[in-house]
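Progress against Task 2.4 (sequence-to-structure conversion) is shown through the following example record, which the project officer requested during the mid-term review.
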Amino acid sequence: MMQRKSVGPWSCLLVFLVMSLAGCARTYYSAMEKVGIHKRDILVDRVAEARDSQAEAQEQFKSALEQFGSVVKLEETDLKQAYDKLAGEYEDCAAAAQQVSERIRKVESVAEALFDEWEDELGQYQSRKLRRASEQQLRETRRHYRQMLRSMHRAEKSMQPVLLSLHDNVLFLKHNLNAQAIGSLRTEFSGLQQDINGLIGQMNAAIEESNRFIAAMEQ
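Structure tokens generated for the chain above:
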């Protein structure tokens, strides 16, 4: 006889939180629909917000690279000031990356709700012709959405190695406030530059996909 697995209090709490959040989302969407703002409109707005956060993150990572480059190129510099600048850039980059991730999650949340609702409402059609047309539109919208989301996730993922590299270099400088530390950071600069350039490329691709998706949804 199989032994019944017990559910701990933390598991119960997690389930409760997930259900509460799902309930809050449904309440929010319902309230917005009552004032004429539908899930489709919310999805377009959230994609635009995610796109804008990617553009902002892109600029922040560029700024970090510029600061890093200015620090390692100087033969004589105030090491404490250099550390403070780089630490500040890292914190700003981490915050920008967090905002990108949060906005992508919001896009996913409303997209799932929209597609579930769309799927359910297909059964309400009396006209087979209109139902087939709606099914085709749903498939196309999902295809465009998934393509855009993959691009967003690639951009999101490309930020992580850059953040890790920035953190390592800031931490190294913190523990070694001397000229030798600056020399060591110089050897890391080209790798960091390559990573950030790759990140910018992924961000640009995600921004372009977002613009195409928004244009398709607004037709």
